[in-house]
Amino acid sequence: MALTPEQIAEMMREAWGCASIAPRHAMGFARAIEAEMRKQDDELIQQMLEALTLTERYLEIEVGAAYGRDAHISKIKEYESRLKKHKKCITAAQARLGKKP
Fold first, then answer.
1. Scanning 17, 19, 21, 100, which has its CA 20 to 30 A from the CA of 82?
2. Which residues have C-beta within 8 Å of that of residue 45, sequence separation ≥ 6?
3. Each residue's pLDDT tens digit, 56-99
């Protein structure tokens, strides 16, 4: 989510005491910083998505193995719950990066 001009002006007021005395190119500089931060965020989210995708299959195997070895129902529910949360994280990361599930 991009900062609004009002939010940037508020930050300038905090930094310089008054938005009107901020350096002439401060707004452009703020936008450049914001773009760089978004890029870094996207790179971190991409790394997280890759890790989640790799471990998703492992969790699916764990759920299947729990059923196969007649594990206690609470253990099966725990694995299923973990897998469900995992899939939600993957979906959220994909949405944030603009990727289709």
1. 100
2. 93, 96, 97
3. 888 888 777 777 777 677 777 887 888 899 899 999 999 999 98
pTM: 0.62
As given in the structure block, the two tokens for residue 101 are: 């599930």
Distance CA 45, CA 28 (A): 26
CA 31 from centre of chain = 20
Q: How far apart are the first and last CA of the chain?
A: 21
What DSSP element (H or E) covers 7? helix 5-16
In the chain, the largest separation of any two C-alpha atoms, in whole Å, equals 71
Token reading at 10 = 């508020």
